[in-house]
Design a protein that fits this description.
binds coenzyme A; Aminopeptidase; alpha+beta; 4 helices
């Protein structure tokens, strides 16, 4: 079952990210910090629950693209994690697909991800679409991808993607 997180899930979500990212605290701390932002939307923080246990989590956070004509709203997919023993069962894909649908319902038009170039294209993400958007994390190469939830949303959009401060700490 995929559903929005509740406060009762925080510890389990922390553990999912910590275990999935090899024991690092950076990703679970990122999730905790992003929850404190005024733009945080619990409808875009989804858990995958199986037999009463949280086995996966995905978070989407509002960001913006600074362009010459002005600021264009977008949303960042990050992070997504599945417990190591449960990976490669389609749970990550289900979270991404449900998450993108939730973003669409919330009225978002552009999604950006910095992730594995072999994983995200299956959901429609494209490095070519992201090329006119400057990645703030250095040379991101093919890992820097974008997706238009609304056809044409990225047409003519060129600028610098700005993430909220917690992302600089990862
Ligand atoms: C990436 C991740 C969320 C995918 O979830 P999942 O449930 O294992 O993935 P799915 O079952 O939907 O898809 C399996 C596919 O993902 C690929 N995959 C698994 N982990 C991957 C990783 N770290 N990077 C790239 N691809 C990965 C598998 O090779 C498989 O590819 P295939 O379908 O071409 O054979 C999960 O493996 C994970 O938590 N990894 C560690 C944390 C991480 O790297 N998160 C992503 C960065 S924010």
């Amino acid at each position: 079952m995929i559903r929005p997180e509740t406060t009762a899930d925080y510890a389990a979500i922390y553990a999912v990210h910590q275990k999935a990212f090899g024991g690092r605290a950076a990703e679970p701390e990122l999730v905790a910090a992003l929850r404190k932002l005024p733009t945080f939307d619990p409808a875009l923080s989804l858990v995958y629950e199986e037999d009463g246990r949280i086995v996966g989590h995905i978070l989407f956070t509002p960001i913006s693209i600074e362009t010459d004509p002005g600021r264009v709203p977008a949303i960042a997919l990050a992070p997504v994690a599945v417990l190591p023993g449960q990976q490669n069962r389609g749970i990550g894909a289900a979270l991404v697909r449900h998450g993108l649908e939730a973003c669409r319902r919330q009225g978002h038009a552009i999604v950006i991800v910095l992730g594995h170039p072999n994983y995200y294209p299956r959901f429609g993400f494209s490095a070519a679409l992201a090329r006119p958007l400057a990645c703030p994390f250095g040379d991101c190469g093919a890992a820097w991808m974008a997706l238009a939830l609304v056809p044409g949303a990225l047409q003519g959009v060129q600028g610098r993607v700005v993430y909220p401060p917690p992302f600089s700490d990862v």
